[in-house]
Design a protein that fits this description.
This is Microtubule-associated protein MAP65/Ase1/PRC1 protein. This protein is about 70% helix and about 0% strand. It is an all-alpha fold and about 575 residues long. It starts with a helix and ends with a helix.
């Protein structure tokens, strides 16, 4: 470029020389030329200065934006790298531009993350406040300017933590809503109420199925559901208590009226609520108004029917009481005898239900007494069975052919052996029974009656009668031995049996059986053969019990011939001396 300018200047000087320009003109034109060159350089410098200023301004703006983005994003480590870069504006601008673009992209992503988190936070807060999240959140624009100064990870983490807390709170509220809705559904089913109508009063969307349906988790909805659940539970308790009272009355009427299973079947599901807890009553419509009205109507029907059938019920309960007492050998309470019950019912002096309750209380008391008497009654039955065996053995001993071979003879022999063993235990059995009876009387502070008679008196009379019987048997055995001795004396005197005439004369004395008939003084045994008194043979004071002796000890034919009359010692001696004189 310098050679070109010099050649042009030489050429210009040659032209001026040829033209004959003066030196002054040449200087003027050269000055003009220099001025024009200065203008051009000045314009270039000005343009360069403007360009430098633009570059510097752009660099400053970008560096400021980078600094702001780094501060906003929390990327403080990038600033140290920028300080080590070259001082050239274009190079610095070339380095800043891609960094700025990267930071802008990262900012957009961070803003999007913040926006998503904040939108969800806002949505959850609106749901908690009771607004429709879809409509309100969609129509309202979310302003990020309040958060652009701090887009750091720390801030994002804080918002995410808030979001998690709100999500957990929403989950808890949602489960509460579902729990309340399920409780309302089950309560409505039990009470027979319209579930849709009940929940519509709180919010129409609550009867829709599915977790995603429940977007209303506000405090007002939770409070509304809580109030509805409490109201329904209180209603359930009131109805349950009322139905329990109705069912208790119904059960009493059923038992009183002896209702059939067919009559009870329609109310079978209602009987389960009597012994169950409140929370266990879950049967559908078991507490509905219709069900309760049906139960109350049944109670009303049976109450009206009870009045007409009360006499029959009272008589039946009284007969039941008498049957229990008869089987247990007790005396029934005469305050509710059949005659008195009928008179009271016909006179309307007392309530029939109270009369039935009184008899049922007497039945319960009789059953308790039967249970307390069971041990002694078992012992009485064993004693009576032993007495029966004793009677059978006495009858068996009267049989003259008992040792002859025949059908069943060996069985009778075995039974006789067993009977003798049992009879040998009778005294101890009676003493044990008396002792146990005294213990029972001490424990219950009352005498033990058997068919209206004190059991100890019966047992004492039995012991006395048995002692008299043993004494009589011993006397008969002694008389039999003495008679045998007389016969032996006669045979030794005559050397043979007595003649037919003498034998006949002797037979008249022996009642035709070969044995002398003992003469028993009537006043010694009361003019009759002693009886063994047992509960079966004792006749009660009202004459309602058997008068036939159960344990009458029959004597054998040989013993009978000996027991018809007893011979005194002097009579037997007189007869013996008379025979010697003959």
């Amino acid at each position: 470029m310098e050679r070109s300018c010099a050649s042009l200047l030489k050429e210009l000087e040659a032209i001026w020389k040829e033209m004959g320009e003066s030196e002054e003109d040449k200087d003027l034109m050269l000055l003009e030329l220099e001025r024009e060159c200065l203008l051009v350089y000045g314009r270039k410098v000005e343009e360069a200065s403007k360009l430098r200023a633009q570059l510097h301004h752009s660099l400053v703006i970008k560096e400021a934006e980078v600094s702001a983005l780094m501060a906003s994003l929390g990327e403080h480590n990038l600033e140290l790298q920028m300080e080590k870069k070259s001082a050239s504006l274009k190079k610095r601008l070339a380095l800043v531009t891609p960094l700025l673009e990267d930071l802008r992209v990262r900012k957009e992503e961070r803003v999007k993350q913040f926006s998503d988190v904040l939108l969800q936070i806002r949505k959850l807060r609106m749901e908690k406040a009771g607004y429709c999240s879809e409509s309100n959140a969609g129509n309202s624009s979310f302003n990020m300017e309040d958060h652009e100064h701090d887009l750091s990870i720390r801030k994002l983490t804080d918002f995410q933590t808030q979001l998690q807390v709100l999500q957990k709170e929403k989950s808890d509220r949602l489960h509460k809503v579902i729990e309340y809705v399920n409780d309302i559904h089950s309560l409505c089913a039990v009470l027979g109420l319209d579930f849709r109508k009940i929940v519509d009063e709180v919010h129409p969307s609550l009867h829709e199925a599915g977790l995603e349906r429940y977007t209303y988790i506000s405090d007002s909805i939770l409070d509304g559901l809580t109030q509805v659940v409490l109201k329904l539970k209180k209603e359930k308790e009131v109805r349950l208590q009322k139905l329990r009272e109705t069912m208790e009355s119904l059960l009493k009427l059923w038992n009183m009226m002896d209702s059939s299973e067919q009559e009870r079947k329609p109310f079978e599901k209602l009987t389960c609520i009597l012994g169950s807890l409140n929370q266990n009553v879950t049967l559908t419509e078991v507490l509905s108004l219709e069900t309760m009205e049906q139960a109350e109507a049944e109670v009303q029907r049976l109450t009206e029917l009870k009045t007409s059938r009360m006499k029959e019920i009272v008589l039946k309960r009284r007969l039941e009481l008498e049957e229990i007492c008869r089987e247990a050998h007790l005396e029934p309470d005469m305050s509710t005898s059949l005659e008195k019950c009928i008179a009271l019912i016909e006179s309307d002096l007392v309530d029939s239900s109270e009369l039935v309750a009184t008899i049922e209380a007497q039945i319960l008391k009789a059953k308790e007494e039967v249970l307390s008497r069971k041990e002694i009654m078992d012992k009485i039955n064993k004693w009576m069975a032993a007495c029966d065996e004793e009677n059978w053995l006495d009858e068996y001993n009267q049989d003259e052919n008992r040792y002859m071979a025949g059908r069943g003879a060996h069985l009778n022999l075995k039974r006789a052996e067993k009977a003798r063993v049992i009879i040998s235990k009778l005294p101890a059995m009676v003493d044990n029974l008396i002792t146990r009876t005294f213990v029972w009387e001490d424990e219950h502070n009352m005498p033990f009656f058997y068919d209206g008679v004190r059991l100890v008196s019966i047992l004492e009379e039995y012991k006395l009668s048995r002692l008299k019987k043993e004494q009589q048997k011993k006397l008969l055995r002694d008389q039999k031995k003495l008679q045998s001795l007389l016969l032996a004396e006669k045979e030794s005197i005559y050397g043979s049996k007595p003649s037919q005439r003498k034998s006949n004369s002797f037979n008249r004395r022996t009642n035709g059986s070969g044995f002398m008939t003992p003469i028993i003084r009537q006043n010694s045994l009361g003019g009759r053969t002693p009886e063994l008194l047992t509960p079966h043979s004792y006749s009660g004071p009202r004459g309602r019990f058997s008068t036939t002796p159960l344990n009458f000890v029959a004597l054998s034919k040989e013993d009978t011939s000996l027991s018809s009359a007893s011979l005194s010692g002097s009579e037997l001696g007189f007869g013996f001396h008379a025979q010697l004189q003959i």
